[in-house]
Amino acid sequence: MKYYIVTYGCQMNVHESEKLAAICEKMGYECAENKEEADLIIFNTCAIREGAEDRVFGNVGALKRMKKEKPNLIIAVCGCMTQKQTTAELMLRRFPFVDIVIGTFNLPNFAAYVEAVKAGRRQLELYEEGDIDETIPYKRTSGENAWVNIMQGCNNFCTYCIVPYVRGREKSRKEENILKEIREIVAEKKYKQITLLGQNVNSYGKDLNPQVSFAKLLKDICAIEGDFKLWFMTSHPKDLTDEVIDVIAKEDKILKDIHLPAQSGNNRILKAMNRVYTREKYLSIIEKIREKIPNCRITSDFIVGFPTETEEEFEDTMSLVEQVKYDSIFAFMYSPREGTVASKMADQIPLETKKKRVNALLALEKKIQKQEGKR
User: Fold this and answer.
1) Which of 61, 195, 219, 280 is the most exposed place for a label (fewest CB within 10 A)?
2) Residue 230's closest CA among 294, 297, 174, 146?
3) Is 134 within a domain?
4) Of 76, 50, 82, which Cα lies nearest the Cα of 63?
């Protein structure tokens, strides 16, 4: 028996696909080179933008003929997209040949769902929010980089973002479990880099009793003997403390590379996004990073065409990018997500305007990189 996993979205999804791969191999499946030779096909989905969902629907729909030719083929759809009840139910209505539809909290039970399908029962598990499962191993598939999830969920509720609804509230792993996993990774001597993952890594440990700061976790990881580099993503500006910046500056094992999403350069839009910082506050953090870590590589994310954004407010984003001179940026057109506050806002920006703005922002980035010799 062979399995094949299609992964969409962020690094967290990539890491969770490594967990799915380990579950499949424990069941006796081998990794297939393509969908055609697989007996079990898994789509691990993303719900951040509409385009990601459209690709999933298109690729799942394309399997209808394959399922007819191979009736015993098991097709599973999981992840953030199918944590939403409306999307999961739509998936089942449109594609009745799909066998398993589960959300983000049901992955630890995936083997049981596969066995249930083989026994003739259809599975639909959506809504249970659970704790982080520490028992499932990973089949690491990212070369010399090892992903380590330190927390899941988000408490920020940015008005454009579906993540808190599909990933739940913030839950941190116990520090001793994280350190144990990293010691095991280092002992294998196969991985040159360890990347810590979380929807907002800077919030790590606030929910633990006693609390453990992200800065302390970084210091304790760096105290582990071994030859490795440490990185993390993603940071929220409101939680990037001076202590964390100091640890990055001091510890040789930590890569001097910070991804710090700004999303907008205009204060009114930042408030409408519920980002809980101002342009001025964001720039003060950048100044601290540049002062304490002069050689630090700084990257960022931006959303253009947020509801009600005027041309002048978009120009504030352009001027922020011009002022910071990032090493790299990711720019996205705002995509309404059902269930979020921003999706209900008046004055949604036309698609053509969003396209124009995102192209202008990316052109500016290209110009700055050429001028500054950025890598």
Assistant:
1) 280
2) 146
3) no
4) 76
Distance, in Å, from the CA atom of 167 to the CA atom of 173, rounded to the nearest integer, reads 15
- Give the strand pairing for 229-233 and 151-152: unpaired
26-54 pLDDT, tens digit per residue, is 999 999 999 999 999 999 999 888 788 88
Token readout for 348 is 């949604």
Q: Which of 255, 280, 310 is the last residue of a domain?
A: 255
User: Within the chain, which residues score under 70 in pLDDT?
Assistant: 123-132, 374-375
> Do 230 and 269 reside in the same domain of the chain?
no
pLDDT score of 353: 98
How many CB atoms are located within 10 Å of the residue 58 CB?
A: 9
Same-domain check for residues 167 and 146:
yes
Number of domain units in the chain: 3
Identify the helix (H) or strand (E) that includes residue 25: helix 11-26
Integer Cα distance of 110 and 76 in angstroms: 9
36/49 same-domain check? yes
Per-residue confidence (pLDDT) for residue 274, from 0 to 100: 97
Residue 30's contacts (CB-CB under 8 Å, 6 or more residues apart) are: 1, 2, 3
Give residue for tokens 């350190």: 179
